Amino acid sequence: MTNDGLKILLVDDDKVMLFLHETFLKRSGVSRDAVLCYNGQEALDYLDAHQTVETTFLVLLDINMPVMNGWEFLSAVRDKPYLEQLLIVMVSSATEESEKARALMFAQVIDYQQKPLTIETCRRIIGSEKLRRFFGDFMPE
């Protein structure tokens, strides 16, 4: 069960992946109301329109997408007033260690996961130090 102060965005151009990831988030107890975005620009537009001081955004971000890919999204949020309210998990099918290293160079990127996410992966993400506070006593099994 998520705290009111955390909003989750799933960003991926693959509708099947979005469905799977949303389902796994629900089944792991992470989220009932993730916002689905089909590219980085949609996510950016959502953040621009819905940012508040009280909200932290967990963005599960694909890398390879049309319109605005994950790298372009990371560059675009650098100058945004809500940058410090973003916690980003890169979710990619890329297996190269260089991709992971590049992603983790961004301060807002807290994790890098292989596609597809699983219930176990979702539980690990919310158990991370930066997200634990939003889930209170919920402990992943």
TrEMBL record:
GO biological process, one term: phosphorelay signal transduction system
InterPro entries reported in the protein's UniProt record: CheY-like_superfamily (IPR011006), Sig_transdc_resp-reg_receiver (IPR001789), TCS_response_regulator (IPR052893)
Modified residues (4-aspartylphosphate): 62
Pfam families reported in the protein's UniProt record: Response_reg
Keywords, ordered alphabetically: Phosphoprotein
PROSITE patterns according to UniProt: RESPONSE_REGULATORY
Domain Response regulatory stretches: 7-130
Entry protein name: Response regulator receiver protein
